[in-house]
Amino acid sequence: TLKRRVVAHLLRNQLREPLQKLLFHIGEVGDFLGQNVFVVGGFVRDLLLRQENFDIDVVVEGDGIGFAEEFGRRHGCRVRAHRKFATAVLVFPDGFKIDVASARTEYYLEPGALPTVETASIKLDLYRRDFTINTLAIAMNRAHFGELLDYFGGQSDLREKAIRVLHNLSFVEDPTRMFRAIRFEQRLAFQLGRHTEHLLKSAVRMGFLEKVSGPRVFNEMLLILREPDPLPAIARLDELGLLAYIHPRMSCRSEINRLLAAAKRTVDWYELLYTGEGCQRWQVFFLCLFSGLDESEVNQVLRHLGMPPRYAEFFGPERETVHRIVHQLEWRCSQRRNLSNSEVYRMLRELPIEALLYGMARTEHEEARRLMSHFVTHLRSVVSLIGGRDLQSMGLKPGPCYGEILNKLVAARLDGLVSTREDELRLVRRLLAG
Ligand code: ATP
């Protein structure tokens, strides 16, 4: 039988009180319904690693949706049930969420396809998971509170810092796990186990990734590119032949590697300055990975990964626009003529922040980079002091001329030609007279 280690002290010492209470309430509802409940997966992994994680996944040996409904009634949560998967999301009044699932087992009828699902014991539920370090569970019911379930050697792999699959067919059943393996390996500074790395390489060699739908691969790429530092994971994807699956010519060697490093510095710089605003870092990194490909190759990738149209627009035509604008800026800088603020503004203002950051990383022209950075920090937020209402009260009929006038006001402000409201009003009168 399984030797159970008690980790109640970790729950007590590592977690803040509201979270401890929450776990206790989860056990209470399980007791009330006569069902075993566990927290599982990443939360437990990170608890043992002493790392903070607020993503709580609950597994109920029995009816997960019934559990969620009872918990929701008691604690004022909304319940979003997914009957097809026997799962539910508990949404607390403050927006905090908990995933609840019914313990289940999965059969893969075909490699790479989505699995067929049946309810099962917690042990079988844990067996369908990707890596041993994600198979740990902690009991929540009062009589067993804090007992750690470790059926597949998860604790020992945490100690050894090893990413290991549970069985030889794991990557064949679900090839997206290859991406996940690398994400965890690099995030946690672990290593793929020897046998696991061997299995991964064979799965790549045998082309199992071809069986996975593009959007699922895209989703795993997104998760990797959203990690705080995705560069080591990208290098590892390349080394193991996974980038080549996205496109045979996609790689992160030499030039692209330099570009990725510059993008990382630029994105970090931006996020340090604008903590509140943030940006879609992954888009900047994806642009870098695309930069070795021409337009038609990028389009192949977009189709292949089934990227949603809004992204397809960004990585397709918009990418061409950035290249053109950066090129123009570099050319104008090399003419050694000083560009006015309003000229810089006019060139760059249509670009989303992700495109600008990519442009900054991409250019090797010192002055062009300086101007882009100046645009980001100073120019892009400049607005005129007077607005449409003022123009109206000056007797001007609303129409496209409003936009033109306001643009001229911003340009004048950028170039230091106006500073007060009166300056602006005077300029408008001059424009109208002229
Ligand atoms: P993160 O810290 O990035 O949120 P996580 O371990 O919580 O990582 P999720 O993607 O939220 O990962 O998945 C939750 C759990 O579901 C994981 O712990 C894992 O065991 C399991 N899981 C997710 N995807 C797969 C998969 N493709 N195959 C098997 N198990 C998976």
Automatic annotation (TrEMBL):
The keyword Magnesium applies. Keywords: CBS domain, Magnesium, Metal-binding, Nucleotide-binding, Nucleotidyltransferase, RNA-binding, Transferase, tRNA processing, tRNA-binding. GO terms for biological process: tRNA processing. GO terms for molecular function: metal ion binding; nucleotide binding; nucleotidyltransferase activity; tRNA binding. Belongs to the tRNA nucleotidyltransferase/poly(A) polymerase family. This is Polya polymerase. It comes from Syntrophotalea acetylenica (Pelobacter acetylenicus). The chain holds residues 446 to 879 of 879 of the full protein.
